[in-house]
Amino acid sequence: MMKKYLFISLIITLIFSSNAFAKCDFELIDLGKSKENLKQKLKYPKDQPLMLMPDNFGGETFLLPLDESCKDQESLHGTMGEYLFINDKLERIMLTRANMSDRNLMIFAMKKYGKFELPEGLPLDQWRGNHFWEKGNTLIEFLVTNIADEGFIEAISIQKLKSTTAMNRYYEKVGKWLDSEN
Fold first, then answer.
1. What's the pLDDT tens digit per position in 89-118?
2. DSSP 75
């Protein structure tokens, strides 16, 4: 009888935790929308500018900890949302989580976008690699990779399936810079 109650409580916990993961709405505005749309969504005063970080490649990034946009989703606290604007249009959303002792971003990605096969017998925390999903006209990539001698990073990148000309030029500039550094 006790085993039955434990099993039922486990099932209920899994159902509620998967619903909680699904309710984290970090996609505050649609791809292609302007910085002004983001300001309105975040309820910034009209005269207050967004704090954007320009880069050397023509992009501007707005950073928002998921602690702010997903307050009730404690398992994603410590995750940073990066909103890349090029020519005043949102081109990419990236979630990053570095050196955390869990795989909560991977679990979130699998619950939101769909499961993918992992090597049999390999512990989840040792897996490195990437996986892509196509949802409508959106391309989503999940990635886990090592970062120098400092540990690892998990990331989810969301952008249009068919890259815009602006995004292609941006990646070309980043690529040339990376090639010049080697």
1. 999 999 999 888 888 889 888 898 998 888
2. G
